[in-house]
């Protein structure tokens, strides 16, 4: 278990930007597998929604309701089986996570977030911004949370347990029993359970079930459409809060952002209503094929790797090649493949490199890695 004393005024620049900047200035062709920017087509109804919005009356170009368009919030609420009053539409899942973490801190029931190791690095970054500490608890070999270790790490100082399922970077999918156990740990320590479900449409295992099914006033769920609709640039996400936490979250959202982009909300609403299930099924099928071919190449390279049960990331470990920033830069310069250093996600997988399979050149990247390490 590792603890990061991250309270303070200085914020570290995410390594994502450093790696992308390095790859952009490389002297050779580089396959970018750094960030989760989907390369596939968004739903056609989403494009239709944008076209229709362009011809709307001028009053439709003005501020939307701060908490989100009523029609969109009602559509979300129906799909999630919650009251629309609990839904706050945000500038992507990133802001939704920030709002839920802020609510956990504002309860004055601890200033620590329990996170998994490895962890999506923006979580400890947000904790740092909020003046909190982060304690990272290594996951099990399967990638699932070590609930016993979480229970041992939790204390009266724990404001919230924050997890992501399907998981970035391990590809693990937490089943309902695991979420219930984490909820119990949170309850035992008067903490909240924050669950980021942004990859909910990318479950290959059949084990995923939303934490909202627990129907608990300790559970706050976040998600968005950046990944599922392949629109990371739209910045439309949302959080579902227990009733007691909604008003303060809306106030913080209004003070920081005023509102979320109106055309993006209109387009997402149209896509939600008109996109058939086959859109998501075909995307998952395409990703399964990429995972198969990419891991085959990793076999040829003699690498160990995680096979994702959800999301679209593969972590790989190469002999005598720890997942440091300097080694990732070597891969860019010498193999022409850009991934993320494992050390960016914590200590437990610091020997690994994470690759995002959101490029049509995934097979080419796999071939380059096989040649480089084989």
Automatic annotation (TrEMBL):
Listed cofactors: pyridoxal 5'-phosphate
UniProt domain Aminotransferase class I/classII large: residue ranges: 29-361
Keyword Nucleotide-binding: no
Keyword list, A-Z: Aminotransferase, Pyridoxal phosphate, Transferase
UniProt EC number: 2.6.1.-
Pfam families, A to Z: Aminotran_1_2
One of the GO biological process terms: amino acid metabolic process
UniProt-recorded Gene Ontology molecular function terms: pyridoxal phosphate binding; transaminase activity
Subunit structure: Homodimer.
Protein name: Aminotransferase
Species this protein is from: Halogeometricum limi
């Amino acid at each position: 278990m590792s603890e990061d004393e991250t309270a303070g005024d200085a914020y570290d620049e995410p390594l994502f930007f450093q790696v992308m900047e390095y790859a952009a200035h490389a002297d050779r062709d580089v396959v970018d597998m750094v960030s989760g920017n989907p390369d596939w087509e968004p739903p056609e109804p989403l494009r239709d929604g944008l076209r229709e919005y362009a011809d709307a009356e001028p009053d439709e170009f003005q501020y939307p309701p701060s908490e989100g368009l009523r029609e969109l919030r009602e559509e979300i609420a129906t799909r999630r089986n919650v009251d629309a009053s609990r839904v706050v539409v945000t500038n992507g899942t990133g802001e939704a996570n920030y709002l839920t973490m802020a609510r956990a801190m504002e309860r004055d029931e601890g200033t620590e977030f329990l996170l998994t190791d490895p962890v999506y690095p923006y979580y400890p970054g947000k904790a740092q911004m909020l003046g909190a500490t982060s304690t990272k608890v290594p996951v099990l070999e399967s990638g699932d949370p070590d609930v016993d270790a979480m229970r041992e790490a939790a204390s009266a100082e724990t404001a919230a347990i924050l997890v992501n399922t399907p998981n970035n970077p391990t590809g693990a999918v937490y089943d309902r029993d695991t979420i219930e156990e984490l909820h119990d740990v949170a309850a035992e320590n008067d903490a909240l359970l924050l669950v980021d479900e942004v990859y909910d449409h990318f479950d290959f295992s059949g084990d995923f079930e939303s934490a909202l099914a627990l129907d608990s006033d300790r559970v706050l769920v976040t998600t968005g459409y950046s990944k599922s609709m392949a629109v990371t640039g739209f910045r439309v996400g949302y959080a579902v809060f227990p009733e007691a936490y909604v008003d303060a979250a809306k106030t913080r959202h209004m003070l920081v952002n005023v509102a979320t982009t109106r055309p993006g909300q209109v387009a997402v609403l149209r896509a939600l209503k008109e996109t058939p299930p086959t859109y998501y099924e075909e995307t998952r099928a395409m990703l399964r094929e990429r995972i198969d071919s990419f891991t085959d190449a990793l076999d040829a390279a003699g690498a160990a790797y995680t096979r994702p049960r959800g999301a679209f990331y593969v972590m790989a470990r190469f002999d005598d090649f720890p997942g440091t920033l300097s080694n990732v830069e070597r891969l860019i310069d010498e193999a022409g493949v850009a991934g993320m250093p494992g050390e960016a996600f914590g200590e437990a997988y610091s020997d690994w490199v994470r690759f995002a399979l959101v490029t049509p050149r995934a097979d080419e990247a796999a071939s380059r890695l096989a040649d480089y390490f084989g």
